[in-house]
Structures are given as C-alpha cells and as structure tokens.
C-alpha cells in the first residue's frame, strides 16, 4: 500500500499538476492540504475520472484538506480535531482507506512568533497530540499524514541558524513534535533516511528551489500496528520543478501486506 501527502497549494489552480502526478505515482491513498477552495468547488469529478474517490473539507482562500483513495471511496470517520468546537479552520479530516485509519492534517504555520497565531498553533498541536494518544491507545493501524509546519531537527532545514526564531523551528514546536512521536509514532521518512538531508518544501522566493534551500515539513507518522510494514519512503522532488508547481513536493511511503522482516529500504529517495 502506497500512502502519500501533497500540499497542493490550490487544488484547482494546480489540478493539472496533481493529475499528472497521480497518473505517474499511482498512490493508493493521498492526503492533500491547502485546497484553497470552498466545499462545493472541489474537483471531485476530475479526480473520479482519474480513478480516485475523495472526502474533503474545503475552505475559501486558505486551508482545506482532503483524502483520496485509488479505486475506492474513503470512509470518513472524523472532520476536525476534537477539543475546540468553535474552531472553524479546515485543517483535519480522517478516513479509513485499505485497512488503515488516515488522519490528514494541515498544521497552522504560527508566524509571527511569539503572538496569537503562534499560541493557536501550540493549542492546535495539543489537540492533535491528545487525539493521537487516543488512536495509539486503541491499537489500530493508523497514520497521521500531512503538512505539520515543523522541522523536527537541524537535519530537516538547510540553514538551521537562520530559522531559530521561526514558528516552524522554535523549541516549543520541536518539543511538541517530539512529544507526539514519543507516544510511539514512527516518523517514516526519517526512519527510511536516518542521516540524509531531505526536503519537502522549497519557497518560491530567493531561488530556494534552484539553491536546494529546502525544509522537511511534510511528515507521515505511523502507529506501531503498521510501522513494521514500512518498506520504502521518499519524496517525489522532481514534481517541485514542474511548470506551475506547488512549493511542496509529494512525500510517500510504501507498506507491505505483512510486517517487513528486514530493515527499511529507500527507493527513489529525495536525495540526488
């Protein structure tokens, strides 16, 4: 089973890029972020024609998340994180695909920090961590997948010293990510590439893509029930170089039908 995450940065404006990648990569399940479209304008028909069923939570201008399933309809189990009934931002959706419960998330950016937006990010992270603990306690095969807007370590950012005060790299945020994975979640990309620099995001400004000045902020976290099935992981970084591309590249994992007996292999890695 191949699971991927892709911050499309506008699903309608970059639909051609998304469809091209889906045809090329053929993931079984996909988490999309930053749909930037209201609920009624999500391109469900075009995705269905491409062979994908979908559930989504749209949002005009910003945010918005979706889960796609190849040749099937995802079975939605949750829309929005528990813990704040007044939170109207479209940042979390959850569905079952192929026997795996997938939580698709788009973590708040949090800048400028400190400030109200950073406080909201930390509160959102607390809600995610509490929900993740419930999934972990249930012992089910689950994955938390999406744009976390967090670089967990110095290895995940091209020049760590330039990001020390940024909301994506502040100690509070990295500590929150460590607390989340400390529940027992496996950071699949890092498990497959323990010492390599690999990125999932390159800004549009300052020739970040040309300089390979990237960040790893898109993550796939696996519960113990499926972590042993991890056989491959990588980033389709070439997609970032396509015309009219998102500033993110798709990241993906592959799970075997049974627990892998050998250490994780890395195919089509994110490093040239």
Task: Provide a descriptive summary of the structure in words.
With 272 residues, the protein is of the alpha+beta class. It has a single domain, classed as Endonuclease/exonuclease/phosphatase (Deoxyribonuclease I, Chain A, 4-Layer Sandwich). The chain has 7 helices and 14 strands. The longest helix has 23 residues, at 116-138.
- Domain tally: 1
Mean pLDDT, all residues: 94
Q: What is the helical fraction, as a range of percent? A: 10-25%
CATH class annotation: Alpha Beta
How many angstroms does the end-to-end distance come to? Answer: 25 Å
| General shape | globular
What's this, in brief?
Helices cover 24% and strands 25% of the residues. It is built from seven helices and 14 strands.
Strands, helices and their partners?
Layout (H helix, E strand, L loop, with lengths): L1 E6 L7 H11 L3 E5 L10 H6 L2 E6 L7 E6 L4 E5 L12 E6 L2 E7 L9 H23 L3 E6 L23 H11 L4 E2 H5 L8 E2 L5 H4 L2 E2 L2 E5 L1 H4 L2 E6 L15 E5 L17
Parallel strand pairs: 1-2, 7-8
Antiparallel strand pairs: 1-14, 2-4, 3-4, 5-6, 6-7, 8-12, 9-12, 10-11, 13-14
Helix pairs in contact: 3-4
